[in-house]
TrEMBL record:
Organism: Dethiosulfovibrio salsuginis
GO molecular-function term, one example from the UniProt record: ATP hydrolysis activity
Protein name per its UniProtKB record: Iron(III) transport system ATP-binding protein
Keywords: ATP-binding, Nucleotide-binding, Transport
Source organism superkingdom: Bacteria
Length: 351
């Protein structure tokens, strides 16, 4: 099922009697049938409010919501055929795994044989086989989240909604649950909207990421597009780490720190330009002929080393050295050279 959001806004009155708050401001977005789209942004950007309007827990102040061809603005949440996986799991502590997952099916009045048939398929799909008689108190956080996920998908919804479902889990378990949610969503082909403030989570799980700020969409695209070609400084800074370099763009390329780098330059980019250079796109070496810099900080992170370097021509830069055990480690106070790879540079739109 296709989800279409047309010019949707949500306005809340101010608590102190002042100006109203536009939590969501004229959002237009289409989620294709079977697509998983993540709403990403900092706290207060409007992503959760937008999700709640899709679910039916908030009414739009302006605009329209369509599930397929059906306008659902005034349709009650229980009649939208959409299910929401909550951050807090929201499973019943007095019911076992089987009864928690079957709860919605029983409300729909399904026969016991049909319930067991659906349950058997879903329980094994989410990795809870053999745990049907356990109570929530006997489950880990990850297993409780699997119960919440199974309870949502067993209803066979047209739309699956996720409200920061992994934020209560530890880092390693979050990584595994991201894989499991993505696998399950693709296997079922359910149109899904996922809300998070974690950019790594958004990048790893999504067909498309929608970056929001102050109630508006800043940029929408695939994880690769947003990382490699951010539209503005906010998106570049929110999606991973970034170095921002001031330069001058002309038809043949861009000049940074007095050195010229060939790039395809659009007419609108000619003149003063701000260039994004990702930390892993910079190279540290002792070879002469690049930008002389001094190592200010070295942070070993296992799979990479993060350096902070000070360069007279470029300013302070963050540099990532991937697979550090295979190369030389540089220590604070050392003089090194930094080189830029032109194919990894990106010019931001002028604001």
């Amino acid at each position: 099922m296709e989800l279409r959001i047309s010019e949707v806004s949500k306005v809340f009155p101010s608590h102190d009697g002042g100006a109203v708050v536009r939590a969501v401001d004229s959002v237009n977005l289409t989620v294709a049938d079977g697509e998983l789209v993540t709403l990403l942004g900092p706290s207060g950007c409007g992503k959760t409010t937008l999700l709640r309007m899709i679910a039916g827990f908030e009414d739009p102040s302006e605009g329209d919501l369509y599930f397929g061809d059906r306008r659902v603005n005034n349709v009650a949440p229980n009649r939208r055929n959409a299910t929401l996986v909550f951050q807090s799991y929201a499973i019943f502590p007095h019911l076992n795994v089987f009864e928690n997952i079957a709860f919605g099916l029983r409300l729909k009045g399904l026969k016991e044989g049909d319930i067991r048939s659906k349950m058997e398929k879903v329980v094994h799909m989410v990795g809870l086989g053999g745990m049907e008689t356990r109570r929530p108190s006997q489950l880990s956080g990850g297993q409780q989240q699997r119960v919440a996920l199974a309870r949502a998908v067993v209803m066979e919804p047209e739309l699956l909604l996720f409200d920061e479902p992994l934020s209560n889990l530890d880092a390693k378990l979050r990584e595994q649950m991201r894989i499991d949610i993505r696998r399950l969503q693709k296997a079922l082909g359910i149109t899904s909207v996922y809300v998070t403030h974690d950019q790594a989570e958004a990048m790893s799980i999504s067909d498309r990421v929608v970056v929001m700020k102050d109630g508006r969409i800043e940029q929408s695209g695939s994880p690769v597009d947003l990382y490699a070609r951010p539209r503005n400084r906010f998106v570049a800074d929110f999606i991973g780490k970034a170095n921002f370099l001031d330069g001058t763009a002309s038809e043949g390329g861009v000049i940074l720190g007095g050195k010229s780098y060939p790039m395809d330059i659009a007419p609108s980019e000619v003149g003063e330009a701000q260039v994004v250079a990702r930390p892993e796109a910079l190279v540290l070496s002792r070879d002469e002929g690049h930008f002389p810099c001094e190592v200010m900080r070295t942070t070993f992170l296992g799979n990479l080393v993060e350096y902070e370097v000070e360069c007279p021509n470029l300013g302070t830069l963050t540099v990532h050295q991937v697979n550090p055990m295979a190369g030389e480690l540089f220590r604070p106070g050392e003089s090194i050279q930094v080189s830029l790879r032109p194919e990894t540079l990106h010019i931001l739109e002028k604001e």
